[in-house]
Design a protein that fits this description.
The chain is mostly beta strands. The protein contains one helix and ten strands. It has a domain of 118 residues: Immunoglobulins (Immunoglobulin-like, Sandwich). Strands 3-5-8-7 form a four-stranded antiparallel β-sheet, with no helix packed on it. β1 and β2 form a beta hairpin.
Length: 179
């Protein structure tokens, strides 16, 4: 009798858990396919669900201009680290505050200014790509979140990694669309 009671309580608890989890999922269908605006011309592109989708800025917004949004590092050998500095200008009327910059994978590391950029002033964003374990065509995206509208801007780094014969490596998982 005690075993039956314990089994009944276990089944009830599991059933309650499953119902509660199912209710949490209601209304979130399609939430993984967030739409982001790409100023480079790929409006309506579906964002990578692993990336954090930025909400619209709460305070005053400004505008950011990158004269160069794509850099081709050409052919490099596996294991090389390449870097490129992207210049940008605050073309709005409010101070520009970059809250985050994130590469499409751990091999792409952006470094951005933490201090506000005054209207009309320029800034620099250094992006480093580590080709260790990579081979073939590489297309990397950096998502920049700032007090701009839209809240996200994108810059790209691409090139080809020459791997030694028989070397292990990962093929590119992200491709630049609309370029």
């Amino acid at each position: 009798m005690l075993k039956q009671f314990k089994l009944l309580m276990f089944v009830f608890a599991m059933g309650s858990f499953m119902v509660a989890c199912n209710q949490d999922a209601e209304g979130t269908e399609g939430a993984d396919a967030a739409v982001a605006v790409d100023p480079a011309g790929d409006a309506g592109a579906v964002a990578d669900p692993s990336e954090v989708v930025a909400e619209a800025p709460v305070g005053p917004t400004t505008t950011i201009d990158f004269p160069e949004t794509e850099y081709d590092f050409g052919m490099i050998d596996q294991g090389d680290v390449v870097s490129h500095t992207y210049m940008f200008t605050n073309t709005g009327t409010e101070p520009l505050i970059i809250s985050n910059a994130k590469g499409s994978c751990g091999c792409t590391i952006p470094k951005w200014p933490k201090d506000p950029i005054a209207p009309g002033e320029t800034g620099e964003m250094l992006v480093e790509f580590n080709s260790k374990g990579k081979k073939g065509n590489q297309n990397k995206k950096v998502t920049i979140t700032a007090n701009t509208n839209p809240a996200q801007s994108f810059i790209y780094l691409k090139g080809n990694v020459n791997a030694p014969e028989g070397a292990e490596g990962t093929e590119p998982a992200i491709s630049v669309q609309g370029q």
